[in-house]
Write a structure and sequence with these properties.
Mean pLDDT: 95
Strand content: 25-35%
Number of helices: 6
Largest sheet: 7 strands, mixed
CATH class: Alpha Beta
Order of helices and strands: EHEHEHEEEHEHEEEEHEE
Number of strands: 13
Radius of gyration: 17 Å
CATH architecture: 4-Layer Sandwich
Structural class: alpha/beta
Length: 262
């Protein structure tokens, strides 16, 4: 059996620090072969930059995925192509810089990774995620032994539909973006691990990783405020997927949460 850990949206400095501090030990404790992390909120809670990408990869992250905040940090569009283990969402326009898929290898198994953006309540221009997934799965035939698909979206129904759509064709379909872990981790009937949202990696004494007061104030009066990244109750949240490399099917998919200093 092989395992991969998918770490949910890393939010700001607290999220980065817990990954860097805990991941080396966590890889050994969980006996994982691959670690993939969504880093789209790693820089101040919005976007990523080159120095942060380097630090996360050096800590033991094998691949970094991104989402709708992919271009939020100035200059990242010029840096992204230089990172062989970072991929942008695959259903962005083809002229966008950066890789639209990655292939990782461990113990003789080639794991392909790509992200598709949902299109409901999302700001970036994106092609149909279902058609994009079909295209990439076809292009990856013979180049990878199994595929992990991240669905970065707002709407649970859209992410559930993708899970069922790819059941039996992907090792796992795991969701990100909402920063709140869902209680639906499962292996679907044809062998695909699934979870609507794996949760965020960052401060949980917050509103989606931001200081509570300004967010409540915005809801009360609608006035603009700066939403700083919070600091309290830092956790690493993700999904641990175990799969059979011979059958190319998941055998378990479960929420995995680690609290700081524990």
């Amino acid at each position: 059996m092989l395992k991969f850990l998918f770490i949910g949206d890393i939010v700001g400095r607290p999220g980065r620090e817990i990954v860097i501090e805990r991941l080396p030990r966590l890889r050994s404790e969980l006996n994982v072969d691959f670690v993939i992390a969504n880093g789209e909120n790693a820089a101040g809670g919005s976007g990523i930059n080159g120095s942060i990408a380097k630090a996360l990869l050096a800590s033991g992250v094998d691949a970094i995925t991104l989402g709708d905040h992919v271009w939020d940090q100035k200059g990242w569009e010029s840096e992204i192509a230089g990172f062989e283990k970072v991929c942008r969402p695959a259903n962005l326009p083809s002229i966008c810089p950066g890789r639209d898929r990655l292939i990782l290898e461990a113990r003789g198994f080639r794991l392909a990774v790509f992200t598709v953006l949902g299109r409901q309540y999302m700001g970036l221009k994106a092609d149909c995620p279902y058609a994009c997934a079909d295209r990439l799965l076809q292009e990856l035939e013979g180049k990878a032994d199994g595929v992990f698909v991240e669905m970065h979206g707002e709407v649970t129904s859209e992410k559930q539909a993708m899970g069922w759509y790819l059941d039996g064709r992907a090792l796992a379909v795991l969701g990100t973006h909402t920063h709140v872990a869902t209680a639906d981790a499962a292996v679907l009937p044809k062998g695909t691990g699934f979870m609507c949202d794996v949760g965020m990696t960052g401060p949980y004494a917050s509103v989606l990783g931001r200081e509570v007061g300004p967010v409540i104030g915005r809801f009360l009066d609608g006035m603009p405020r700066k939403f700083d990244v919070a600091e309290g109750d830092v956790r690493l949240s993700g999904a641990l997927v175990e799969f059979d490399p011979e059958t190319r099917k998941a055998v378990s998919c479960q929420l995995t949460v680690v609290r700081r200093n524990r």
